[in-house]
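#structure-requests
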Amino acid sequence: MNHNPEANLKPEQDQATQPLLNQSPTHNSQNNQNLVQAAQILATLRTEISQVIAGNQELIDLMLIAIACRGHVLLEGMPGVAKTTLVKTVAQALGLNFKRIQFTPDLLPSDLIGTSIYNPKTLEFVIKPGPVFTNIVLADEINRAPAKVQSALLECMQEQQVTIGNESFKLDLPFLVFATQNPIEQSGTYLLPEAQLDRFMFKLLVPYPNSEVEKQIITRSQQVIQTHAIISKPQLTLLQELVDQVYVDEKIIEYIVKIVQATRNPAKFKLTIAGYIALGASPRASLAIYHSAKAYALMHQRQFVIPDDIKAVAPACLRHRIARSYEAQANQISTDNIIADLLEQIVTP
């Protein structure tokens, strides 16, 4: 049996919603117009989110790119840098349903996906859906949950479905996971499995704000700022389809493959960072760079990908997929340092 237990738990969506984008472009000029409109939508979303989130423009852009590519995002930063606020604001600007789950060591899979409850009146088991039955899930401090919870979340991320007992239920699309973790405090935490890390399209670093941005944060804390929904679900779906239409030349694809292959066999490419990489990136990294570069090009009103687009998204796609060697850790060489050197040494087409 395969159905959504939430189907009868929420009102029907407004079928009269009129998408801003043309749903069936018939020629190149119409397609060009759609691409321009899509770039304008992304710019409007960025502006709306920036009214709440001070600074971090690049971070906001990369989050929007991941959403346009249907990708999950891992956010890493110290407490108090507005990771939760950022995800909540993005969900509001997209007009999507949002649920926040605080991950703890005693969390159970049923707390995440739901469970079946016996109804003594009807003498039947009834499915009670968990908080993952939404569009955007914020998994706060994801590395504090044990392996069973991580396994349940992994199925949601990869298959967009939930298994409760002997039944599977499809999740409502779009379904995106935004997870946070603290890079310093490791007491009571569990390392995320490599397989789960690989399911995140991006790993984004949320830094401390500079003095000017911190002043803006203090000023905005005294204001009540309402975030308005900029697009609807049908418009988001069309936006994602337009990303798929962006052209990628064969030489650009070869460039992506060289970058990822170099993380696995740096000696073959005669890279100076060969001794710093213990484990390279998987083919999912190639796909992540490919799709996110298309969205990056679209955001900049281009119908084709250029090498600079690859360089802009590669760090976010690779930093959680490359394992540093003992030598790199001993010399305090970060993954971002390795990626920067790699992009500098691989020949640009």
